[in-house]
Specification:
Keywords: DNA integration, DNA recombination, DNA-binding. This is Integrase. Belongs to the 'phage' integrase family. One of its GO terms (molecular function) is DNA binding. Helices cover about 45% and strands about 10% of the residues. With about 260 residues, it is α+β, with helices and mostly antiparallel strands. It has 3 domains: about 5-55, no CATH class; about 70-160, Tyrosine recombinase, N-terminal domain (DNA polymerase, domain 1); about 175-255, Intergrase catalytic core (hpI Integrase, Chain A, Orthogonal Bundle). A 4-stranded antiparallel β-sheet has the order 1-2-4-3, with no helix packed on it. The chain has a 3-stranded antiparallel β-sheet with strand order 5-6-7, with no helix packed on it. A hairpin with a 2-residue loop joins strand 1 and strand 2. Helix 4 (about 90-105) crosses helix 6 and helix 8 runs antiparallel to helix 10 (about 240-255).
């Protein structure tokens, strides 16, 4: 079996891209790996660039820069703070990694001596030089502001940390005919139902895959979306046409707990 794997940077994150024969069994096995994702733009499966995954795919281990012990402890304390504030696991991971990137940039400088000028220098000499995205810079801003609010000894004035100007682009909206073509392109009833439900109810991908059978209220014609972004529940209207599609799908696939298993 021919498998090729190599490190890549995708959406400002270090990942390992993996190419292998297009076989359903292999795809199923790969999807079970932690945080394995498909990139439509790159047309490749990818997963986090970790030492474990590098060993698994026979990639030379990357030399990791040593981070000052005190800063390591600060990052761990920051993670605990975010967890106790009940931030989502994705937010904790994103903010702690952003903070680590910032603190490592000033690895030889005491945290309490880092000031607003250092933040500007980090923007200029790290983010702009590496051509990183505005969204990544905003993640760093969020992490820095939250972190420096939690410590007493600091030279940083949090209120003076500014955000980058955001681009104002017109949205690329698909026409009704284009939507119909996308929905009708699938002969597999499961995939067609998933796409139709996403479009009809305005669901995020994570919201779709976390739906349970009990979240479909056919009597009131609503979908209950639980613990979405911001840890909030919400409801979405369910059309009769989508309800019929769900019934046809259920007769064939017979899911037990999750709506799409």
């Amino acid at each position: 079996m021919s498998v090729e794997a190599r490190p890549i940077t995708h959406k400002n994150k270090k990942r390992i891209a993996v190419w292998y024969p297009n076989q359903q069994e292999l795809i199923t096995r790969f999807r079970k790996l932690d945080d394995a994702k498909w990139s439509a733009s790159l047309q490749v499966w990818h997963l986090p660039d970790t030492a474990e995954n590098r060993i698994k795919f026979n990639i030379e281990l990357e030399e990791i820069p040593h981070i000052n012990f005190d800063k390591t402890q600060e990052i761990e304390n920051f993670k605990k703070y975010l967890n106790t504030k009940r931030y989502s696991s994705n937010t904790v991971k994103t903010y702690s990694e952003a903070l680590q990137t910032f603190l490592m940039f000033y690895n030889d400088k005491e945290v309490k001596k880092i000031d607003n000028k250092d933040v500007i220098d980090f923007y200029d000499k790290y983010i702009i030089e590496k051509k990183l995205s505005i969204s990544f810079q905003n993640q760093v801003v969020n992490a820095i502001k939250l972190y420096f609010k939690t410590i007493k000894e600091t030279a940083i004035i949090v209120e003076k940390i500014y955000r980058p100007k955001t681009q104002k682009l017109l949205p690329n909206v698909l026409s009704k005919e284009e939507i119909k073509q996308i929905l009708n392109a699938h002969s597999n009833i499961k995939h067609k139902t998933m796409l139709s439900l996403i479009y009809s109810c305005g669901l995020r991908r994570s919201e779709l895959i976390n739906l349970k059978l009990t979240d479909i209220d056919s009597k009131r014609n609503i979908v209950i979306i639980r613990q979405t972004k911001g840890k909030k529940d919400r409801i979405a209207p369910l059309s009769l046409k989508i309800l019929e599609m769900l019934r046809d799908y259920f007769k064939i696939y017979k899911p037990i707990v999750w709506l799409f298993e």
